[in-house]
What does this fold into?
Amino acid sequence: MLTILFDGVAYGMLLFVLSVGLCVTLGLMNFINLAHGAFAMAGGYLTVVMMNWYGISFYWCLPAAFIVSAVLGVFLERTLYSRLYDKTHLDQVLFSIGLIFVATAAVDYVMGASQQIINLPAHLNGRFEFLGASIGVYRLFVIVICGLLTVALQFVIGRTRFGSRLRASVDDGRVARGLGIDVTFIFALTFAFGSGLAGLGGALGASILSMDPTFPLKYMIYFLIVIAVGGTTTITGPFFASILLGVADVAGKYFVPSIGGFIIYSIMVLVLIFKPEGLFARSTKR
Amino acid sequence: MTTVLETRVLRKAFGGITATNDVSFTLPAGARHALIGPNGAGKTTFVNLLSGVLLPTSGSIFLNGEDVTEWSVRKRSRAGLARTFQINQLFADLTPLQTIMIAINERENAARSWFRSFGARKDLVGEAVELIESLNLADVIHNRVGSLAYGKQRLLEIAIALAAKPSVLLLDEPAAGVPESERDQILNVVAALPASVSLVLIEHDMDLVFRFAKTISVLVNGALFVEGSAEEIARDPRVRQVYLGEEVINHG
Amino acid sequence: MSVASATDMSAAAAGPASLRLMSAARWRWYEFLFWGIAVACGLSTLAPALGFTVPVIPTKLMLMSEILILGLLALSIDLTLGYAGLVTLGQGAFFGIGAYTAGLMAKYGAGVAPLSDPLLGLLGAGLAAGVVGFATSFLVLRGSDLTRLMVTLGVALIVEELVNKLKDITGGTDGLQGVMSSSVLGIWDFDLYGYTAFWYALGITFLCFWFCRRLVNSPFGYSLRAIKGNALRARAIGMPVNARLIQVYTLSAFIAGVAGGLLAQTTQFASPDMVAFHRSADSLLMVIFGGAGHLYGGLIGAAIFRVMQDFLSNITPQYWLFWVGIVLILLVLFVRNGVIGLMMAASQKYIAKVPPKSGALK
It folds into this structure.
């Protein structure tokens, strides 16, 4: 029982790191980047390549995944995404589905369609008993890393000058512009950082989540649920939403495997119906 | 004189800000009434409350004696309350004729039909053409609305409201942003509105207000500041102070 | 000018104005050409019997039927997206519900004559999808486009899960085997080569198309355009916006269900693939490829999409997604309104060079 809770929390933490960038960019620019998962996939596959092909340590892979995904993110943001901010949500969705297709096919072409497996360092494997729960060392590692990241994020957003500018931009982009805040720059930076976090999440999750070319599509729905439940105006919302989703998903698969994804899809639809304001409070007011 | 539109202690609060503060207001039939006030006085909020775009925090609204406080925009519109918007709300991809036909079809309950051709009812098309001609839009009747000059769009904004044959018409700054050269057209149209339509004109422009309005209400900080005939308001020193005060702030 | 004379003048102007409004609904030459080509494709299959050889087409009869069916599905999306402005990423749900309904009716109705009748099957497919469409239409009334995309996607995913889990009824991942419809109108049996299937699909697709064409040129259709153009204004002129959206969404679900039923009947099979996410995404892409808001966009888009898929899959199986993605990105960035948009831009350039005889028409 506690084991499931623990695994669920670890999974939820991972989901948070994967999706937080999407939540912030959505809140900031009202731009829906369904291809967010592609950056996570980039991080995951980079880890696979570095470890399995070149034998580089797992610990080097994590920062590398962050940096490469962030650079990729800022490159795409400046070249492609920035052209789409004033277009409709439909255009943005189509565009990002197009990106998903390209990424999926490209990865399939280079790496093959099968799921990639990495061998974690030996000391991260194994389990131990604690208070009657069987704790996976790696999952504990994930929780610690993601927890530290969350605290750091909270600090950056809550306490720093950049954070206050970011919050002002999310609250009201026009007013923020009027106050002389360079929203475009903030956005590019946030986009890069969010993509980087996704990449890092992909690297961390390479051994837990199944890393194959359909990854962006498969996890798109999870990201959307996090947004739906958590909203886009804070980062604590997505955080709790991720934990909730992680626990619900793990528990659902454990206790009622026959129902499968049914639970989480229903949760999403129900939340969207009954609490759409928890979703996009600012865009529902027409 | 009968009252067509009335509000009783109407209040609207957005969080801590009270945009409409206990406004009790009556509009007699056939009125030519202007609602004025400095920037941020809550004029547009008040119109949004009257037309149902916003729902009030408290208080009530009566249209032709009926309590319409909880009614939707659509229901109020069908009961004879039409409005224009300060920012054009038009169908950019249609033509003026199509736009007016859609409004007339809706009024005549002809828009539910799935199989009739759009424009098959000549009587309604005739009415639409007449309305469009009377508003000086005949030359652009088949043009795409999105491509019309701003002044023409403002005229169409009024035309759509008139197509519903309203008993009460709320004009939210009809001439706002219209270039000087096209302004007169709009002023003439407003002046020529039939007496059967009771008119509330929300305006910032004092020339326009004193040209048409017989009675005036001044709104300040969401509350009704003073009401009276146009002459009384023009002479009222307090009103002057409100506007002069604003000027000082604007320039300071 | 007296009031009376003004009225007379407008009465005189009402005639031309009315004709002008109705001219949008007139059948144009290129529409006859379009459906003529579709019929010619079918007729060309008779050529070998008459001693001619027409390359490519006869062997592609099943592909052509599928194009028609996917076109019908795309048409149903165009109705909501192109006219009412409702975005949806879950049309596959209705398609799949239609497919399984028609499939089950044909499978279990085999002994009971009227149940396996294909036309009745389509009606059942449409009704089943329409009921679900009506029930879920309330979910798309509120919120932004993004909320709608997510809700429709969520509904489609739930339907997909249901199909996979209700193994006893749907056959699970193996699909529904043994779908055997009786003959169309009691005359034409479904043959191995797909002759009946093609003409049947063409007939039904055209019928639905004709219906939609009437609909979008009716006062109802124009009220949808008004909602798409500006919902706030539509409400302010007294339009029951929500009721209109519910109607069109339900109708669109009905048509998608008919399309699904057609696919199940003509391929004699229903599988979870027919409700999968890629159905919803693909059909939306077809509308975007072709151009939304013209009814033909979905049909053209389906043809291009399916032919491209057939062609590219032969060269690089499974990587054709890459090219779909590239085309999609380019379309969003550079082209408005897909293929139809391109053609209209081209024809406008042509008209600008050569002034037409009747200057009144666009």
